């Protein structure tokens, strides 16, 4: 007896491609692990010791110190003051926040590359960012540079989203709120590292290159201008404390 078996004609679904947020998460985790691995082995160097000594101060004493030295690192020291109370003062504990910040940086870089060049560009950008020496070094150093890199990357992604992404479909109120978030983020990032304010210039060039609408340029100018105004006190303190690094 012959048994006839009908072939399975159901369409075979192609494997699901990795989405941009999955790629970002994967590379972000990889960058964090690479930066954190064995970060407890080297002892703290001079600037990291300054981080620990400053963060250990009572808040009142720390604020008093910032009026004389290291005002440009004040926000980072305040954040680390709270962190070491939770995680301790070991080399690994001090450097772990920077490793996490590098992971956030790499995640944002893949999203930016994917927005501009597609999935393949996101993958290449993720690989390069994970092994970029200056970035991985920032991820194993108890200083603020990894945080400024992360903030700069995410602010750039936010700007691109407002220019040519879903931000254009927001209601006027929500769009204004997004620009307020951009301006506040730029100010906070610059308080972490004053020279990050120069990112405003790069973003201005990006706006001009993208031929953004006048309304978008106006909103960006208002948000950026407000951020710059908030930096005046820090800039004054930085100028008054310039002798701290006069030997460089």
Order of helical and strand elements: HHHHHHHHHHHH
Instruction: Name the poorly predicted regions.
Output: none
Biggest beta sheet attributes: none
Question: Structural class, from helix and strand content?
Answer: mainly alpha
Counting structural domains, the number is 2
Q: What separation lies between the terminal Cα atoms?
A: 94 Å
- Helical region count? 12
- E-strand count: 0
What integer value in Å does the Rg equal?
23 Å
- Average residue pLDDT: 92
Task: Spell out the blueprint of helices and strands.
Layout: H1 20-36, H2 46-55, H3 59-66, H4 74-87, H5 91-117, H6 119-131, H7 133-138, H8 145-164, H9 172-192, H10 199-209, H11 214-230, H12 232-240
Tell me what the structure shows.
It is a single chain. The chain is an all-alpha fold and 248 residues long. It has 2 domains: 126 residues, no CATH class; 100 residues, no CATH class. Helix content is 70%, strand content 0%. It is built from 12 helices and no strands. The protein is globular, with a radius of gyration of 23 Å. The model has no long low-confidence stretch (mean pLDDT 92).
Quick gist of this model?
This protein has twelve helices and no strands.
């Amino acid at each position: 007896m012959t048994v006839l078996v009908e072939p399975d004609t159901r369409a075979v679904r192609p494997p699901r491609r990795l989405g941009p947020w999955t790629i970002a998460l994967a590379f972000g985790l990889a960058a964090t692990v690479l930066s954190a691995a064995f970060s407890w082995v080297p002892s703290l160097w001079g600037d990291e010791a300054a981080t620990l000594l400053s963060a250990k101060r009572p808040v009142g004493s720390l604020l008093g110190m910032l009026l004389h030295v290291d005002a440009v690192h004040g926000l980072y020291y305040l954040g680390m003051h709270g962190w070491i109370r939770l995680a301790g003062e070991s080399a690994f504990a001090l450097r772990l926040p920077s490793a996490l910040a590098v992971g956030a940086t790499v995640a944002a870089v893949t999203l930016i590359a994917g927005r501009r060049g597609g999935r393949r560009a996101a993958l290449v950008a993720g690989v390069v960012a994970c092994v970029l020496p200056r970035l991985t070094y920032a991820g194993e150093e108890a200083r603020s540079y990894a945080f400024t890199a992360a903030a700069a990357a995410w602010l750039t992604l936010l700007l691109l989203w407002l220019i040519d992404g879903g931000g254009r479909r927001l209601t006027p109120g929500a769009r204004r709120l997004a620009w307020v978030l951009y301006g506040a983020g730029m100010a906070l990032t610059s308080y972490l590292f004053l020279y990050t304010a120069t990112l405003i210039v790069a973003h201005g060039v990006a706006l001009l290159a993208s031929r953004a609408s006048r309304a978008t340029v106006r909103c960006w100018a208002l948000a950026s201008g407000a951020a710059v105004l908030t930096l005046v006190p820090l800039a004054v303190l930085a100028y008054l404390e310039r002798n701290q690094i006069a030997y460089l």
